[in-house]
Amino acid sequence: MTPNIFGERFYGNRTAAWHIIGYVSQEDQQAVEALEIIGGYNIYKRPVVVNLNGSQQEVGDYALVRSAVKDDPKEIIFGYCTKQYNILQPAEICKSFDENVKQPVETLGMLGKGEKLFLTWKLPEIDVNGDPVETYGFVASGYDGKFGSSLSIVTTRVVCQNTFNIAISESESKSSREIGRGRVWGGKHNSNNALRDLGIWMEHVQDKALQKVNETKNSFITMAEYSINSTSTLADILFQVYPDPQMLPKDYPLKLRDEKQNKIDQLIETARKDRNAVDELFSGQGTSITSDAWGLFNSVTEYENWGRMTKKPAEYSIIMGNRSNTMSKAYNVINSYIKSN
Fold it and tell me: Dihedral angle at the C-alpha atoms of 22, 24, 25, 31, nearest 10 degrees?
């Protein structure tokens, strides 16, 4: 997939993106500074006019028009909207970020011809036994009259169209919300307070992240301190993460029973293989796996991220599909087990 970056309008803090487009700074920059480096633009709302009975008349709708820029010297229409539609200009978003978050911008970029903008910043990193757990604040804004503005907490460093899509999917995933990530604010097109609210929520996310990092770190540290040296404990936890399906009820129709039982048998075999695969990783085949609950959690994530075969694109399943749900479930199961024992 192409990066779909608008010209060279990508900024990265210290780390280049895979597409090697845009500008990478070796020093922390504010968002306004980053926007000046890569080049911004304005979006205008102009009345739509038709020729009616020989005269030009406004129809009540408006066109969303991107200003001309040096490398694309003609204005372009992104979409249409109503009079109430409120535009969050790129420069306004960057200024609000600097004023409210007061952190270096991690990535900043525009997609397509500029119809979408993304901005990310690093939230406090959690380190458990040398394993970093990174999350990002993610602002997305659209200018086509359909895609709105949002703020999310994600694990994806957005650098292109594909990672933008992955971060959006992650923000909408139920499993992400269950472990403290996902979308935290969405702006309505007709709100006059959208820019103000975005700034307040960005500040809130940063403040809460500082608090949450200690809570999450404590949870991971607790995992790291809980040794698992009993095969029965390991089997119990894995069975809760990868349970067998329910057996057929006695009153299930006889003519359908064999067909349904075959499917159940296949699911039982799949669950058994999943448990065995994680068991093998935890028992020595995994990457730097420790013999504790933290190691078991990492065994599950290693298997779901790298070991499981799937017909769907890996990034989809990991971010918002069954693999994502399983990793969230493992986190909850392991923590619940520790608390009850």
Answer: 50
How many distinct helices (H) and strands (E) make up the chain?
Answer: 10, 12
Name which of 6-20, 161-175, 187-201 the model is least confident about. 161-175
Checking if the pLDDT of 241 tops 50, the result is yes
Domain-ending residue, one of 217, 246, 272: 217
Who's near 247: CB < 8 A, 6+ residues apart? Answer: 264
| Pair 99, 213 in one domain | yes
235 plus 107 within the same structural domain: no
Same-domain check for residues 213 and 100:
yes
- In the chain, how many domains are there? 2
Cβ–Cβ under 8 Å, residues 109 and 1: no
Q: Are residues 110 and 156 in the same domain?
A: yes
DSSP letters, 20-57, are --SEEESS---HHHHHHHH----EEEEEEEEEETTEEE
Q: CA-to-CA distance for 112 and 3, rounded, in angstroms?
A: 9
Radius of gyration of the chain (CA): 25
Whether 251 maps to a domain, the answer reads: yes
Q: List pLDDT tens digits, range 223-240.
A: 999 999 899 999 999 999
Do 30 and 161 lie in a common domain?
yes
Kindly state whether residues 13 and 158 are assigned to the same domain: yes
pTM to 2 decimal places: 0.68
Q: Token digits for 97?
A: 């970020």
Residue 12 Cα distances to 23, 95, 183, 266, angstroms: 6, 18, 23, 47
Does residue 58 sit in helix, strand or coil?
strand
Say if residue 134 is in the same domain as residue 175: yes
SS3 148: coil
